[in-house]
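Deliverable D5.2: sample structural annotation.
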Amino acid sequence: DWSRRHGLTDTVVALYTGTLGLKHDPALLLDLARAGAAHGLRVVVVSEGKAANWLAAQATAGGVDNLTVLPFQPMEQYPQVLGAGEIMLAMVGAEAALFSVPSKILSYLAAGKPIVAAIDAGNDAARTIEEAGAGRVAAPGDTEAFVSSVLALAADPALRRVMGASGRAFAEQHFAIDRIAED
């Protein structure tokens, strides 16, 4: 229902959810949308605040029609929000890489969706994505690697399914509350 309400059913959606600040480099999402337009990719950002407002204004001013910025959604709709994305996005700038691990990575893994993250390779989230076989990691600031990783996944539904399933299997193995409680 959520996807239909937002016109997201007939396109590949790259989805970013959650806090969006300067440490996340919101310009990367704008660059992705510009590059993805020719490939039928829609970039959806679910966030609020100055960076989200900046991103929406830049998309409008630049005529970037395939970038949608939505406000935070009610928590009960979060599973539907995640279900709308075929590719999940995460970003942490190099200056925040040592102390910031985006919790959205855990939700993305549990949702069974492939992840493309612009995160320093030494970050725990980057190591988790790679260990799980759940996506691709690009260095912060490497717009070309980030964009090409998203576009490669957008063009390959089979790879998206494999990476998503790998991420989900990793989540089931490592995040099972019964196992965690026993340890």
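Annotation notes: The longest strand covers residues 12-17. Residues 4 and 10 are 9 Å apart (CA to CA).
The annotation will be released with the project's public dataset once the embargo ends.
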